[in-house]
Write a structure and sequence with these properties.
heterodimer; A: 304 residues; alpha+beta; four-stranded antiparallel β-sheet; rod-shaped; B: 241 residues; alpha/beta; six-stranded mixed β-sheet
Chain lengths: 304, 241
């Protein structure tokens, strides 16, 4: 079926009454820009949601045990004791001591080469033990582990990894709300733009509308003509906006992938996300047509 | 059956004013009967176009009563007006063709608005364009048509639905005498098929071309009745709502 026939279906009888009715002007471009910004905002929000979800699942059962003891021999003894105690528990999935080389790499950006790996431990750093529990970390499990370790490894401090990242998750949630707010704001702006375009078109086409009224046309038929015209503009603009936004998303995706950061790598888009993104132009067309219909009907109600 | 009950249109003490100006129509009362042919005459500014606007439901009066097709149209809800307008054919003085539609599409407009199937639209529109001598200009846009051609398209659009009431404002003003006569014959043919015709005109010669016609004369917004037709209307038929 051709594009023309699809377009005619959009307006039904309206296409037969005024087949060439178009609003033209900047409307398709305005809708293209709005669609593009909406798609980018939505993609950003979805990527952040995915990133947060993946990070949460990764650290859901994660614990970090730090043995903070200045004496190296005592530090090592308590670390080994803690590892032995933790390994013996059924609710612990894995226990791994972070090697001194890894530790040195972690603190190198802040302390340089004088950190854990430098000159036989010039600066004392805690022994780090990465623990994975079976199931999520709860306050009760944390208290239990702390009390178990307190007697034989008194220098051990037990922290849930999720606790450290709470501010990051808070920031991600804020960004998600920001993205949602942007999507709603852009939808409202698009509706306002369509409202203005419909009002302007009503003024420009006043004579034609009067004729259709005099020939027995109903408000609904006239509204359908405008709906169809704006729907066609919105389809063209939406398609262009989607293509622009997809280009931007793919480019940003490549740049973030290049960072190689574990956190950022979790912020990809899944199949459902792409379906949602593809729905943006369709939602834009529906919103534009509904706005046009309501605007035209409200204006016509004031005439005879 | 009284005259008022049988009329297709009944005006009773109708007055119309625009804004705070004086009334352009005052105490206008008449009855139009089905199958009658009326000429509406009067000097410029006498109120002919205002009266026609009331007839084609483009305006509501300030006072008085108007019944059309057996219904009080003054209190009629807006949503019911389109159904009434579809029973009225209108020829506007300024044609009011839709500029971006071809002559064919302009003539087809009332049929499409009425929801007629596209397949059923083509033949009557083509026939009508042939009748008004514009079959060769079917695809022409109004801007490329002469004034007379535009007027013929406007007339074809008004009569294509075989309306029960035809209202024409100076329909022969832009055509040559031969075409004027031809168009009057078209109106007369429609009239003989039962359409009530009201033609507003300045052209007194036109009045003689339709022998059975009745004359409504407006003078400064008041209706006079030189032939008595409006007081003693002929009983050529009766309208059933």
């Amino acid at each position: 079926m051709s594009w023309r026939r699809h377009a005619d279906r959009l307006g039904g009888d309206a296409a037969r009454i005024l087949p060439q009715a178009r609003l033209a002007g900047p409307m398709p471009w305005v809708i293209a820009i709005m669609t593009s910004l909406t798609v980018i905002a939505l993609a950003g929000g979805l990527a952040l949601a995915n990133l947060a979800e993946q990070a949460r699942s990764e650290i859901a059962g994660g614990l970090t045990v730090q043995v903070v003891e200045a004496n190296r021999a005592e530090r090592d003894r308590q670390a080994e004791t803690a590892i032995a105690i933790l390994s013996a528990r059924d609710d612990v999935a894995s226990v791994r001591r972070v090697s001194e080389e890894e530790l040195a790499k972690l603190i190198e950006p802040w302390l340089g080469g004088a950190g854990a790996g430098g000159s036989a431990g010039a600066i004392p750093t805690p022994a780090l033990i990465d623990v994975r529990l079976r199931g999520a970390v709860t306050e009760a499990r944390l208290t239990d582990l702390r009390s178990t370790l307190a007697t034989q490894a008194p220098a051990a401090r037990v922290d849930a990894q999720a606790e450290w990242l709470r501010p990051v998750f808070g920031a991600i949630t804020s960004l998600q709300y920001l993205a949602l707010g942007l999507v709603l704001l852009l939808a409202a702006t698009s509706a306002a733009a369509v409202w203005l375009a419909a009002r302007s078109a009503l003024g420009t086409n006043r004579d034609t509308i009067e004729v259709i009224h005099h020939l027995g046309g109903t408000d609904s038929q006239i509204a359908a003509i405008f709906q169809r015209a704006i729907g066609l503009d919105a389809m063209a603009g939406g398609a262009a906006g989607l293509v622009l936004a997809l280009g931007a998303i793919l480019l940003l995706g490549q740049q973030f992938a290049g960072l190689g950061s574990g956190l950022v790598a979790g912020g990809g888009l899944g199949p459902v996300d792409w379906v949602l993104i593809a729905c943006v132009p369709l939602a834009g067309v529906a919103l534009a047509m509904l706005t046009a219909r309501l605007t035209v009907l409200a204006a016509l109600r004031r005439s005879l | 059956m009284t005259a008022g009950e049988a009329g297709i249109v009944q005006f009773d003490n109708v007055g119309l004013r625009y804004g705070a100006d004086r009334e352009v129509l005052s105490d206008v009362s008449f009855t139009l009967f089905p199958g009658s042919f009326y000429f509406l005459t009067g000097a410029s500014g006498a109120g002919k176009t205002s009266l026609l606007k009331l007839l084609y439901l483009a305006q509501r009066p300030g006072r008085g009563m108007i019944r059309m097709f057996g219904q009080d149209v003054i209190t009629l809800p807006r949503a019911r007006l389109p159904a009434f307008r579809r029973r009225i054919g209108t020829v506007f003085q300024d044609f009011r063709l839709v500029p971006h539609l071809s002559a064919f599409d302009n003539v087809a407009l009332p049929l499409r608005i009425a929801g007629m199937d596209e397949a059923a639209v083509r033949k009557p529109v083509a026939d009508m364009l042939e009748w008004v001598g514009l079959d060769h200009r079917a695809e022409a846009r109004p801007e490329t048509l002469s004034g007379g051609e535009q007027q013929r398209v406007a007339i074809a659009r008004a009569v294509i639905t075989r309306p029960q009431l035809l209202v024409a404002d100076e329909p022969t003003g832009n055509v040559d005498p031969d075409m004027a006569l031809k168009l009057l014959r078209l109106f007369d043919s429609l009239n003989r098929l039962g359409t009530t015709v009201v033609v507003a005109t300045h052209d007194v010669h036109l009045l003689r071309k339709v022998p059975d016609s009745l004359i409504m004369r407006l003078d400064k917004g008041r209706l006079s009745d030189p032939t008595g037709a409006l007081r003693y209307p002929p009983r050529r038929g009766s309208f059933e709502a």
